Input
Amino acid sequence: MSRFFAGRTDGNRFGYSAMPQSICLIGAPVEAGASQPGCLMGPDALRTAGIGPVLEELGHPVTDLGNAVLSDPAPITHPNRAIRHLSETAGWAKAIHEMGDRAVRQGHLPLFLGGDHSISLGSVPAIALQSAEIGRPQFLLWLDAHPDFHTLDSTKSGNLHGTPVAYITGQGGFDPAFPPVSASIDPRNVCMLGIRSVDISEHEGLRDTGVTVHDMRDIDEHGFARLLSAFLDRVDAAKGALHVSLDVDFLDPDIAPAVGTTVPGGATFREAHLVMEMLCDSGLITSLDVVELNPFLDERGKTARLMVDLVASLFGRRVMDRPTRSY
Output
């Protein structure tokens, strides 16, 4: 894995170009971790919205590996009787991990198309393992309304899309349902942006971990640019690899209604594109999740198209390249 963007070539934001990178699309049609059905349609909705052709128009070779396939999962039980679809979610994590691992070893930048946020139980550990093997520190930017820091013991809803960051950072409470993370991410290398819905147990779990949590008050007081720049400077100084996990509910539901966990007060259209363009400029991105798109809740594909536009901004599109849309 390596930094793949050259940075601004001429100091002109309208004339930016990104170095081509081989991008691999991996569909993760998972809804087992969420409370509402529909996320399994997310990968195909992103494809229908043109995610592959848009990236190719920006000069990036794109390979679509299709969707991960769930094998018959072994039955798993847990004392927390609230947990839903544990065996299925663990099986999906294994299948997604295997596809992500294979994509990175073949030299691709993996772009995981969700699916609910439980796909990160498989995608992020696969990326972190590769970084560990080459001695590169792994960082994680979590763009979400929720910290997703529950363990199997602490979750009351039983929805496992609320557990990935706890698992990824090596917190207890996941054995034996999930294998020990072979290369956990140091919690101090995790930054959360846009947080505005935190359960009490998550707050307690996060308190002493070193995870950087920027809620919407932080953003209102300091702005996305300042907070994100500070984190990217840390990643750059450590020569780290950066995985970005982009949840639809990072955005305000007025512009992105197609999510089952809407929380008012999210990122605006302009703020979200600023974040994506800053990430592009950083040249640090080595992998990406796009999660929680539920087309069943969308309005004429509005959210799917917005998510594709944001991914395009992350991979080099600038304001002068953005087409006018007619709805």
Notes: Residues 1-17 have pLDDT under 50 and may be disordered. DSSP finds ten helices and eight strands in the chain. The first strand starts at residue 23 and ends at 28.
